[in-house]
Amino acid sequence: MEDITKELLYTAASAFSFDGQCIGLSQNTEGHINDTTILTYCDQEQEKRYVLQRINTGILYNPEELMDNIVRVTAFLKEKIAASGGDPQRETLTVIPTKDGKNCFADEQGNYWRAYNYIENTICYDKPDKPVYFYRSALAFGRFQNLLADFPVETLHETIIGFHDTGKRFVQFQQAVSDDLAGRKHLVEQEIEFLLKREAYTKSFDDRTDLPARVTHNDTKLSNVLFDRESGDALCVIDLDTVMPGLSLHDFGDAIRFGACSAAEDEPDLKKVSFDKKMYDLYRQGYLEACQEQLTKREIELLPMGAKVITYEQALRFLADYLNGDIYYRTQRPEQNLDRTRTQLKLLADMERMI
Fold it and tell me: pTM for this one?
C-alpha cells in the first residue's frame, strides 16, 4: 500500500461524520496490520478524539464484509451492555459511519478506511507483567463470549476462509517443506520431524457435533484488551477484524499460547521458554467465571486441547513461512521466524507434559 500523506488522511477524514473541526492528528504505530491515526476534533470548545484506520486489504481481503461483522457485533454488544447497567460507549467499540451512512470509505486510490470513537483514559499491555492483567483479560474475553452467546452466529461472514483450519495449515506446511523455496530445509530437519509426528492435532476438532459454532475473536492476545487507567479493570475488547464464526477453543487456546509462555514469541534462547501452568490456571479460572456457564461440558473438557492445537497450528505457520523465505510475517532479522517456530515447539512440548 502507498505511504499515507496528510492529504490522503484529510480526504479520508472528510468522508466521516465527525463533530467539529480537525485540530490535530498523530500516528499510532502500535498496531502491526492496519495504519492508525488519532484525530482530534473541536466542537464548541469541546475536544473529542477519533480513531481513523486504513484497513490493510493485503491481509484483510473483504473490508466491507469485515465491517458488516464488526458493526452488527458491536451493536449487539451495546444492547447487552446497556441492559446489564454498563457503559456501551466505553465497553465496546463505536463505529463512526461515513457521511453517506456506510460502514467504511473507499477512496479513489482503492484504500478502505474506517473510524471509531477514541475510548479515553485507557491503556493496553503487550505482556502480562502482572498476573492480574492476564486474569482480567480472561474476564474480558469470557464476557465477550457470554454477551454474544445468543448472537445469530450463522449471519456473520467468514472473512478469512479456513482461518483456524489446522488440517489446511498442515497441508500448506507440507507444501513448504516440499518446495523448500528459500533452501532452508536442511537447517530445520528436527523441527519438521517434530511437527510431522504430531499430525493427529489436525483432526482434534474434526467431530464438531458437540462443539457449537460461536462468535469468536480469533486474536485474543492481551494487547487487544483496553484497561481502565484508574481502576485497572479490563474494559473493552478491541481489534475485531477477525470476528467471525468459530470455536471457543481457538480463542482460549490463542490466549494461552501468548500469555502462559515465560518468554517472548521470538525468544532465541530456549532456556528462557517454558509453559507457565499457573498462568494457564489463572486464565482458565477467569475465562470460565466470565463465560457464566455458556460453554458446554465438552468445550470445557477440551480447553487444554485448544491450547495445544493452536500452538501446534502457529508453529506450522511460522515454519512454513521460514521455509518460504519469510513472505508473510514481518521480520526484523533473518532467523526470527525460526525462533518463533522453536518457541512454539518448546511450549507445546511443555503443554503435552503438563495439561
Answer: 0.93
pLDDT of residue 30: 63
User: How large is the average pLDDT for residues 6-12?
Assistant: 90
Cβ-in-10-Å burial (0-12, 13-18, 19+) of 53 comes to buried
Are residues 251 and 337 both part of a single domain?
A: yes
Q: Cell 503487550, residue? A: 126
Domain that holds residue 101: 6-117
Q: Which residues pair with 49 in a beta bridge?
A: 40
Whether 111 and 41 map to the same domain: the answer is yes
State how many domains the chain has: 2
Q: What is the pLDDT of residues 16-30, one digit of tens each?
A: 999 999 888 887 756
The string of DSSP letters for 184-215 reads -GGG-HHHHHHHHTTGGGGGTTS--TTS--EE
**What sign has the CA pseudo-torsion 133, 136, 81, 210?**
positive
**In sequence order, what are the beta bridge partners of 292?**
none
Dihedral-angle region of residue 180 (phi above 0 means left; psi in -120 to 50 means alpha; beta otherwise): left
pLDDT at 31: 55
User: Above pLDDT 70, what percent of the chain?
Assistant: 98
Question: CA dist 165 to 192, 245, 316, 327, Å?
Answer: 19, 12, 12, 20
The answer as to whether 1 is a domain residue is no
152 and 263 inside one domain: yes
Q: Is the separation of the CB atoms in 250 and 243 below 8 Å?
A: no
- Which DSSP symbol is given to 44? T
> Tell me: the pLDDT tens digits for 146-159?
999 999 999 999 99
Among 82, 117, 152, where does a domain finish? 117
SS3 164: coil
Give just the sign of the alpha carbon dihedral 14, 17, 23, 25: negative
- Spatial CA neighbour of 30 closest among 172, 222, 185, 195: 222
